[in-house]
Amino acid sequence: MTRIQANLLLLLAAAIWGGGFVAQSTAMKAIGPFWFIGLRFVIAAMAVLPFALMESRKATVKTTPRHFKLYLLTGLALFGGAATQQLGLQTTTVTNSSFITGLYVVFVPLIAVVFLRRTPHWVIWPGSLMALTGIYLLSGGELSALSTGDLLTVVCAVFWACQITLAGIAVSETERPLALSTAQFAITGLCALAIALVHEPISWDAIFGAAPEILYVGLFSSGIAFSLQIIGQRYTTSSQAAIFLSSEALFGASLGALLLNETMRPLGYVGCALMFFAMLVVELVPELARRRATNRLSASPKLG
């Protein structure tokens, strides 16, 4: 798979996440946040498990204790991101949540520099700022007063950045993206259900009331989209992946306008254009530089 194809997979994942945001928020009317998270990710794990087993039969890399540790850390990061985002939505606006969550486009390259001692391509920094500015304009160019939910969403953005970074490391070492997907879904689902059993009431009526949203988000937003993210990250960098995945906000706003007749301010269209330009920049600039370097090498005279 080429890097361009991988980034297209990440775009598709972001589109699915954008479409599932409505289901994620409406389910909260019938069921508690941890029951919702637990059920959606258990369904996702069950859906991907058969494909992970088929993948294991063809695996060429032997699973090591380090791989299990990476699976665990990725799953805990996913749980942290899902939990803080869902809890934050109870006390913050969708506008604030969509913008603050997008901070992970900046956190991912920062993690690469500070903790992994990896310097991203220089274009990642302006690309990240363009994407973040695009999300801000997409949200209307304004934020209401910060709340506890906003602080939780900042923590959520850190967790998403960690999940993207860890997933990139894990899939490059294990070469088993579906095993990683299944593991992180199972860990997230079990953690959420353990908390829900202690702190949240539940009834069959509540589960049935939120069943369409749970099934949609469990199968599509979780099972398919996160698996596409893991597969795509096998062939691209975490910093590039963060920028392409941040288009979730773009797809969410576009689908809201298309399907729910929601209106978008003129600034929102500027934000869409800026995000699209950011994705083009981080895709084309490294590719053009690579081609120039190749051409220089092929054109240089052979010595000896």
Automatic annotation (TrEMBL):
Top-rank lineage group of the source organism: Bacteria
Membrane association type: Multi-pass membrane protein
- Where does the chain cross the membrane? 33-56, 68-87, 99-116, 123-139, 151-171, 178-198, 210-230, 242-260, 266-286
Check the record and name the Pfam families matching this protein: EamA
Keyword Phosphoprotein listed? The answer is no
Q: InterPro entries, alphabetically?
A: Diverse_Substrate_Transporter (IPR051258), EamA_dom (IPR000620), EmrE-like (IPR037185)
Residues annotated as domain EamA: 7-139, 148-282
Q: Does the keyword Cell division apply?
A: no
Where does it live in the cell?
A: Cell membrane
Q: Which keywords accompany this UniProt record? A: Cell membrane, Membrane, Transmembrane, Transmembrane helix
Assigned GO CC terms: plasma membrane
User: What name does the UniProt record give this protein?
Assistant: DMT family transporter
Q: Organism, per UniProt? A: Rhizobium grahamii
